[in-house]
Structure formats: structure tokens, C-alpha cells
Design brief:
- PPR repeats lie at residues 204-238, 305-339, 406-440, 608-642, 706-740, 807-841.
- By secondary structure, this protein is mostly helical.
- The protein has 58 helices and no strands.
- It starts with a helix and ends in a 15-residue tail after the last helix.
């Protein structure tokens, strides 16, 4: 740069160019033998064009001004061009306007306009033209100025130019008309474009292409095709520019036949070799789901450029053909072509969706090699890739390394946190983004809303809503729909509905969000109301709508409505979708119509894992558990892979511990990450088989234990009669600051009931009172039962009397307490008080009061209560009620009546009931009824010796020794032995 300045200084000292008049300079340049001054001026012009340094350029500008050469057109335009090439439009405009402020020639104005247009400074061009347009314009001026209006979307100035063109008589120039046609088309005014096109007398290929492109740009597919036909009829030879726009529309309009015809036309006119057409055809066939044709077009291209490779990679990626996309990427490398931004942004998703971290890191290395790592779009794609691969630390490192972060980069990082369930970090990033001066866009707001949906942070949700309102995103449908879903997920469905009502445009997704929101909280009435309103407003429902409505129906009273929705689904043609079938199976089984759910399942051609799970869950809910395992075997036979929900349906119905272990082992082998529900269900299964050892092992293997796991383990200890373990683990909970809840306290109370220690019961009660759990009605009911089992009937009554709120369980617990202590009169008095207070007894309360009558021998009262069970309260007697009455009548010697009850029962009597009656027959010496009951018991039992011994004793008491011997022989033949008695005396 210093050398250039020295040479320039010496040059001016030697030459000493003086200012000449315009006329003299004109003569000088017009002469056949240029003067020395003209040659020196020409040398300066050459030097000007070769000057790259801004300092030298300014010095040269100053020297030229001093020498008087600054008014020469070639010198002025040389300076203007150099300023523009270095991205300095303002000095260029100032220079030109300053030089020609007097009155620039149209020729010089055209040169300047063309120069600004070539360098892409369209706004500056328009500013310059506004300042100097009064000095005249011609055809060469109007075309670039109109194109500038098109580039900056300045339709108002474009219309003014159109008027000026018509006034000045340049409206017949085909170049100007073509520029106007293109401007109106890109502004969306295709009708005006057509009128301009119709006014062109001598249409050339450029004007035809502009009209076809305008139709394509505005989605006028049929009009573009007609224009193409008219071109051919007019003898115009089509080229790539003519076809590329229409080819791009074929995919959107699913016009495969038209696309094939255009392909043939391109081959006919020899335009197929054009690189832009190759990429367009690849994309077109990809839109038709015809990747083989896309690949054929790609393979037939003799020389493949980067755009063609990118198009083929994008086509494969759109169809999730990750492996093929990467193979094309390798071919591109073998062809010696380096990737660009489009390439790497297209290829990176294949790493997180198919290949994995090793391939992703390799692509990352290639990106660094080709110098693309500093590009924000590439860095954002890398952050997204590492996040989706679970390498959140690498994503954060890349994000922090990048200094200039825009919306795209922040959005990628926030999405990365969301993908890795780091909801709080996503929300923190949303706040930091604003602190660093980056204004969140719609995507960032939607991501933040998604974070609030998972954290259930209603305060933060309202803050984001307020920000969206302040930032004028209320008109953005995606943001508003995300807000609807957020409030619904945060449990504030009323705010969600209010927001929905205020929306100017309620799209289908908005209706679906509200319908599913009410369905999730079980408000089927509101879901149906919205569905009816939606149909009334003539908003066409879709599959999601039907599934949401169906999922809201769960009660038996909803069955009729569910059948109507099912009929609507059949009429609309949606019933073939497996997701809808799954929802219908769940709906019918939830409504208690298991047969309908079974029929739907049998008619489903493509039953998937969710289909099997829906029917299994229906079986469980309707107590048809015996059908679950055969359905599971059918599932395995049909190669349908079970998931976590399947195992959760299987574990509670396992018929043996071996089955449970097998299911547990399957989960350990096949699931990389075991969820809390599986741990709790497995512990529940093992506790059913009294295996507290396995429950302890599962509990110890869990790293992060939440309160649900603690409660499940404590409940397992209670079920396995390990009360001491419950107490020890409860102490450990308090020691490590795990906050117990009501379920924890109930498990502790149950353990205390098993221990039967009144002093310890008092300590537990003190802890419960201290921690404020006594206000919960469930805990109070359990405390009443605990103290009654520990012998503190008086304290149990104090707790009962102190309770301000009493439900049927509270009354039943106190009645049962009196029953256990043999105080039948007190139990009956309390039962009468319960009826007088307006609380209707349930079936469990009747079991308690009938048991009290049995223990106290209150036959008449028991008979009256048993009759009122169904007559007055509509409760169908269960096995427990029959057992209480048989026990009452057996104890008091009313054996004939007790046997009549057994024979009138709607179902087979239980073994315990028959044993109770058989014992009463032996006690009262009634061998006739005893023999009948004993035979029923022996026929029903398999492998138990107790029933044989009891009947044998009855035969012996009645002197029927032959029957006694025959029974004992039968017992020996079956390999049954009498249980050996055990005495606790003398045992430690």
C-alpha cells in the first residue's frame, strides 16, 4: 500500500495535469492521436481499477480531484465501481451525485444505475434514482430500477415508475415490460402481470419465461402449463429457465404425469443437461415418492455438480433413507467435491437418526477440514446432532465456543436441552438469550413453552405468555396453539379455554388441543360439547379429533356416545387407522363392553404393540385377568414386540413366581433403561409371593429413589408381614431427608397394626400429628383401625369423635373396631347413628356390622341387616356377606337355615365358608348337614388334608366308622397327611 502511494505521488509531480474544459478534453479524446495528457488520464484510470487499498483509493480520489480529472465519466465510474466492489455504496452515491449535481447525462446515470444493480445495492440505487431521476431516463435506466423495486419489494415506487414509463413513451420496450411483468408477479399481483404481458407486441424468450415463472411463483399451476403450451405453439424453443419453475410445482400438485411429460420436453429441447433442471427433477420425483427415478436422473447426469449431489442427499433424507444419503455423500467426496453448508446441514441428521456418534464425529472433522465450522447454520446443526445423540456436554461446549450466536444457534441449544429432558436448563437458556440481546423468535418461544409443559411451572408459563403478547406473537398460530397446550398440561384448562375463545382464527389444531385437554382431565361432556361446536362451525375434523373425543369416554354411561363416534369414524373412512382402533378398544373396555373391544381387536389386520396393550389393560380393568397371559402368548407368536406397558399388564397377573421372574428378566435383557413403574410393579409381584428378599434387591439397585419407590417397598414389607423392616426403613427415610407422604404413613400404620404394640402405636400417632397428616381422612381411618387392633378401643373412639369429617370408611372402621372387640351392641348402635346422620353404608360396612353380629350372637339383628342389604341399599351380597351370615347362624345352631343360604347362593361357596359351616356342624353334632357340606368341600378342594380330617371327625362322632375308614383310605390314596400340631410352649 505504501509503495502504491509513493508511485502515485511521483506520478502527479511529473505530469502536473491541469484542469481542462470539457470541450478540450472531448477534442483530446476524439483525436486519432491521443495527447500526452489523455494518455496520462488513461493510465490513471487503469491505476484506479487496480487499486484495492482503501487508503490508496482515497489518495487517488483526492489527486484526481486536484488534477481536475474527477469530472471525466470513465474516471468517475471507475471510482464508483471500486467503492461498490468494496461494499461502500454511500461514498459511491455521494461521489456520483456530487459530480453530476448540475445535470448528469442519461448515459452517465445509466452507467451508475447499472453498476449499483450489478453489485446488488438495490436500496441505494433507488435512493440515487429518486435524487437524479428528474434529469431524464430511457429504456436502459428503467429496467434496472424496476428490478431494484422488485428486489426490495417496493411496489409503490414500482407503480410510479410504471406511470413514468408510460408518460415518457417507453412502455413499448420489451425489456422494460418484462421487468414490470416480473415485479408485479413477485408482488403477488399476477393479474396485472398478465395484462402487462398481453401488451407486449414482440415477445421474446425472456418475457415468456418471466410470465411462466410468475404463474409458478404464485401457485397457478394450470395457467403455467397453458402458457407453456402457448409458447410451444408460437414456435418458442424452451430452455431450462422456462421449465424449472413448473417442475418444482409438479410435486406439490401431485401431477406425476405432467412431470414426466416435462421431463420428455426437456430431453427433446436438449435442456436436460442443465444443472438446475437435474436438481429440479430429482426433487420432483422425490416428491412423488419415486426415489428410484430420482436416482436414475442423478446417475445419468454426466458431470455432477455440488447442487445435484445436495439434491440427491436431500431426497434420501426426506424419506429417512439415511444409509443411501450417506452413500451419496461419500460419492461426492470421491468425485473430489467438497461439501458446502447445504451438504453438511442435510447429512448431519442421518448421524443422530441412524449411524450414531462415531459417524457424527467423522462428519464434524470433515466440517472443520473444509472450514465450515464457523458457519452458524453448521454449528447449529452440530449442536442439534450432539444433543440428539445424548452428548449434551459436547453440544454445550460447541455452543459456548461460538461467539456470535443468533436465533438459530440459541434455538438449537434450547431444543437440545428439551431432547435431553433438561427442562429447567432450556428455560434458563431462553432467559439468557434475551440478556445477551438476541430477540427470541416464534421457535424459541414455542420451545420455552414446551419446557413449561414439562416442568408444570405455571408462573413461568404466564411470564412467557406475557412476553409473547408484548412481542406481538398473538397472531402467530403456532405460538397460540402451543400456549393452549401448555395451560392444559399445567392443569389450568380454564385459562386455556379462555385463550381459545379469544383467538381470531381457530384452526383445526386449536380445536384438537382443547378437546384433548378436556379429555385428559376426564371431562367428556366438555370434549363432546367442543366437538359438536366444531362441527357446527363447519371445521372438518380429522383422525386426531376422533381419537381425542373417544379417549374422553370412559364410563358405562358414555357407551352410547362412543358407539355414535365409532359410526362417524366409519362414515368418514378413518376406522382403518390402527391408532383409532386402539382408542376404540380402550373406550369399549373402559365402558365395560369387553366383547366389543375383543371384536375390534380380532378384526384389526395390523395389530401393533399398543393394540395388544389396550386389550390387556381392558381385561385387567374388567377383572378378566385370566385372558391376559394367552393374549401375551399370541402377541409373541405374531412377532409383536412387547414394551414397558405390556410388562406392567403382565406382572400383576402372574400365576407363579417363576412367570414373574421370567418377565422381570426379559425387561432387564431388552430395556436399556428401566423406568420406575417397572420397579414398583416387580416389587408388587414378588411381594404377592412373599419374596421380600427380591423386593429388597430391586430397591437397593435403584440409584435415584423417589417417594413412589419408597412407598412401594414399604407396602411390600407390609404385605410380607415384615413390620420391623417398615419401621427401620421409615427411620432411614427421615434420616436422609426423604419427605414422606400420606401413602408412606398408611404403610407405617399397617406395620404398626401388625406389631400390635400399643406404645409404639402411640409414638406413630405422635409423629403423624406432628407432621400434619391427621387432617387427611384416609390417615385418620387407618389410625382408628390401628389403635383398635392394638387394643386401644377407647383411643380409637376418641379419634373417631374428634374427626369433623367422616366418610363411610370412617364409620366402618369404628364399627369393625367394636366387632373385633366383641362389642356387637356398640357396633349396632354406631351403625344406627351412621344411618341417622345421612351416611349410606357401603358393602364393607355391612361386612363389619354382620361380623359384629356373628361374634356377639345377634341373630335377629343379623337377619334384618342381611335382608336390608339389597332391599334398602341396592347392594348385591358378596361372598363375605354370605360368610358372615353362615358363621352367625352356624355359631347359634341354626344349621338348617345356614345350609339353605349355602344352597341358594348364586355362585359356588368359598372353601372358608364351607369350613366354617362344617366346624359348626361338628360342634353341634349335626352329622347329616355336616356330611353334605363335607362332601361339597372335598369335591372342591385338591390336595388339602384339613377338610378330610374335619369330615372324618364328624363321621367318628356319629359312630359311622365305616365311612370314617373309607374317608381315611381315600385320603391315604391321594397321599394326604394330617398336619402335625405345633406347641409354642417352651419355644424361644
Amino acid at each position: 500500500m505504501a509503495t502504491h502511494c509513493v508511485k502515485l505521488s511521483k506520478f502527479f509531480k511529473i505530469t502536473g495535469i491541469r484542469h481542462q474544459s470539457k470541450q478540450n478534453r472531448g477534442k483530446s479524446f476524439a483525436s486519432s492521436a491521443p495527447t500526452s495528457e489523455a494518455r496520462q488520464l488513461e493510465a490513471l484510470t487503469v491505476l484506479l481499477h487496480g487499486t484495492c487499498s482503501q487508503k490508496c483509493r482515497r489518495a487517488l480520489h483526492a489527486r484526481l480531484a486536484v488534477a481536475g480529472a474527477i469530472r471525466d465519466t470513465s474516471i468517475v465510474m471507475g471510482l464508483v465501481e471500486r467503492y461498490l466492489s468494496l461494499g461502500k455504496p454511500a461514498p459511491a452515491a455521494s461521489l456520483f451525485a456530487g459530480v453530476y449535481r448540475g445535470r448528469p447525462t442519461v448515459y452517465s446515470l445509466n452507467l451508475a444505475v447499472r453498476c449499483f444493480s450489478d453489485h446488488g445495492f438495490h436500496r441505494e440505487l433507488l435512493d440515487l434514482y429518486r435524487e437524479l431521476c428528474a434529469f431524464g431516463s430511457d429504456n436502459f435506466t428503467f429496467s434496472p430500477v424496476i428490478k431494484a423495486c422488485t428486489a426490495v419489494s417496493c411496489l409503490r415506487l414500482g407503480r410510479e415508475l410504471h406511470c413514468r414509463v408510460l408518460r415518457t413513451g417507453h412502455g413499448g420496450n420489451v425489456g422494460v415490460q418484462t421487468a414490470l411483468l416480473d415485479m408485479y408477479a413477485k408482488a403477488g399481483q399476477i393479474d396485472v402481470s398478465r395484462r402487462v404481458f398481453d401488451g407486449i407486441v414482440q415477445r421474446d424468450l425472456i418475457s415468456w419465461n418471466a410470465m411462466v415463472s410468475g404463474y409458478s411463483l404464485n401457485g397457478c399451476f394450470l395457467e403455467a402449463i397453458e402458457e407453456l403450451k402457448e409458447m410451444q405453439q408460437g414456435g418458442m424453443r424452451l430452455n431450462a429457465s422456462t421449465l424449472v419453475g413448473i417442475i418444482g410445482m409438479c410435486g406439490g400438485f401431485e401431477a406425476k404425469d405432467v412431470g414426466s411429460s416435462l421431463h420428455a420436453v426437456a430431453m427433446k429441447y436438449g435442456a436436460i443437461a442443465d444443472e438446475s433442471l437435474t436438481s429440479a427433477f430429482i426433487s420432483m420425483y422425490s416428491a412423488f415418492d419415486d426415489l428410484s427415478s430420482s436416482r436414475l436422473v442423478f446417475d445419468l447426469q454426466p458431470v455432477k455438480d455440488l447442487v445435484s449431489f445436495n439434491s440427491m442427499i436431500a431426497a434420501y433424507m426426506q424419506h429417512c433413507n439415511w444409509k443411501e444419503a450417506f452413500e451419496v455423500f461419500r460419492l461426492m467426496q470421491c468425485a473430489g467435491l467438497g461439501p458446502n453448508l447445504v451438504t453438511v446441514v442435510s447429512v448431519l441428521p442421518s448421524c443422530n437418526d441412524f449411524f450414531g456418534i462415531n459417524q457424527g464425529e467423522s462428519v464434524h472433522g470433515m466440517i472443520i477440514k473444509f472450514g465450515l465450522a464457523e458457519q452458524v447454520s453448521v454449528a447449529s446443526a452440530l449442536v442439534s446432532m450432539y444433543s440428539k445423540l445424548g452428548k449434551l456436554d459436547s453440544a454445550v461446549l460447541l455452543f459456548c465456543y461460538f461467539t456470535e450466536k443468533n436465533n438459530l444457534m440459541w434455538n438449537s441449544m434450547i431444543s437440545g436441552y428439551l431432547v435431553n429432558n433438561q427442562w429447567s436448563m432450556a428455560l434458563d437458556s431462553f432467559c439468557k438469550m434475551q440478556i445477551e440481546g438476541v430477540t427470541p423468535d416464534a421457535t424459541a418461544i414455542i420451545n420455552a413453552i414446551s419446557g413449561c409443559r414439562h416442568t408444570k411451572d405455571l408462573h413461568m408459563a404466564k411470564s412467557i405468555h406475557a412476553y409473547a403478547v408484548r412481542s406481538r406473537f398473538e397472531s402467530n398460530q403456532s405460538v397460540m396453539n402451543a400456549l393452549l397446550a401448555m395451560y392444559a398440561d399445567c392443569g389450568d384448562i380454564s385459562t386455556s379455554y379462555t385463550l381459545f375463545q379469544k383467538m381470531e382464527v381457530q384452526m383445526l389444531i386449536s380445536w384438537n388441543t382443547m378437546i384433548s385437554g378436556f379429555a385428559e382431565i376426564g371431562d367428556s361432556e366438555a370434549s363432546l360439547m367442543l366437538f359438536c361446536q366444531m362441527c357446527h362451525d363447519e371445521v372438518q375434523f380429522d383422525l386426531v379429533t376422533l381419537i381425542s373425543v373417544i379417549s374422553s369416554l370412559s364410563g358405562s354411561e358414555d357407551a352410547t356416545v362412543g358407539e355414535s363416534v365409532h359410526s362417524l369414524a366409519i362414515k368418514s373412512g378413518c376406522n382403518s387407522d390402527v391408532s383409532l382402533t386402539n382408542a376404540l378398544i380402550s373406550m369399549y373396555t373402559n365402558c365395560g363392553i369387553v366383547e366389543a373391544g375383543q371384536q375390534l381387536f380380532d378384526s384389526c389386520c395390523f395389530a401393533n404393540t399398543i393394540t395388544y396393550n389396550a386389550l390387556m389393560s381392558g381385561y385387567r380393568k374388567n377383572n378378566v385377568s385370566e385372558k391376559i397371559l394367552p393374549l401375551f402368548y399370541q402377541m409373541v407368536k405374531n412377532d409383536v414386540k412387547p414394551n414397558l406397558v405390556t410388562l406392567l399388564n403382565l406382572l400383576p397377573v402372574c400365576q407363579s413366581q417363576l412367570q414373574g421372574k421370567s418377565i422381570h428378566s426379559y425387561a432387564v435383557r431388552n430395556f436399556t433403561r428401566l423406568e420406575t413403574p417397572l420397579f414398583t410393579s416387580a416389587m408388587g409381584m414378588y411381594s404377592r409371593f412373599n419374596n421380600i428378599e427380591y423386593c429388597s434387591k430391586i430397591f437397593s439397585l435403584v440409584g435415584e429413589r423417589n417417594i413412589i419407590l419408597w412407598n412401594t417397598f414399604l407396602s411390600a414389607c407390609v404385605q410380607c408381614k415384615q413390620a420391623d423392616m417398615v419401621v427401620d426403613y421409615f427411620k432411614h427415610m427421615l434420616f436422609i431427608n426423604v419427605k414422606p407422604d400420606a401413602v408412606t404413613i398408611l404403610a407405617l400404620i399397617s406395620a404398626c397394626s401388625q406389631l400390635g404394640d400399643a406404645d409404639f402405636a402411640a409414638c406413630v400417632t405422635a409423629v403423624i400429628l406432628q407432621r400434619g397428616f391427621s387432617a387427611k381422612i384416609l390417615v385418620l381411618n387407618a389410625l382408628i383401625d390401628m389403635h383398635s387392633r392394638c387394643g386401644s378401643i377407647s383411643f380409637a373412639r376418641e379419634l373417631f369423635d374428634s374427626s369433623a369429617e367422616k366418610d363411610s370408611v370412617t364409620w366402618g372402621a369404628m364399627i369393625n373396631a367394636y366387632s373385633m372387640h366383641g362389642n356387637g351392641e356398640a357396633a349396632l348402635d354406631l351403625f344406627s347413628t351412621m344411618i341417622d346422620s345421612g351416611v349410606d353404608p357401603d358393602d364393607i360396612t355391612f361386612v363389619s356390622v354382620l361380623s359384629a353380629c356373628s361374634h356377639s350372637g345377634l341373630v335377629e339383628q343379623g337377619r334384618t341387616l342381611f335382608k336390608s342389604l339389597q332391599a334398602d341399599y341396592g347392594i348385591t351380597p358378596r361372598m363375605e356377606h354370605y360368610a358372615c351370615m353362615v358363621d352367625l347362624l352356624g355359631r347359634t345352631g341354626h344349621l338348617d337355615e345356614a345350609y339353605d343360604i349355602v344352597r341358594s347362593m348364586p355362585s359356588r361357596p368359598s372353601d372358608n365358608l364351607l369350613e366354617s359351616l362344617l366346624g359348626a356342624c361338628r360342634f353341634h353334632g349335626n352329622s347329616k348337614i355336616g356330611e353334605s357340606v363335607g362332601k361339597l368341600l372335598i369335591e372342591s378342594e385338591h390336595g388339602k388334608s384339613r377338610s378330610y380330617v374335619m369330615l372324618s371327625n364328624i363321621y367318628a362322632s356319629a359312630g359311622k366308622w365305616s365311612d370314617c375308614e373309607e374317608l381315611r383310605s381315600d385320603m391315604e390314596a391321594k397321599g394326604l397327611r394330617k398336619d402335625v400340631g405345633v406347641s409354642l410352649i417352651g419355644m424361644t
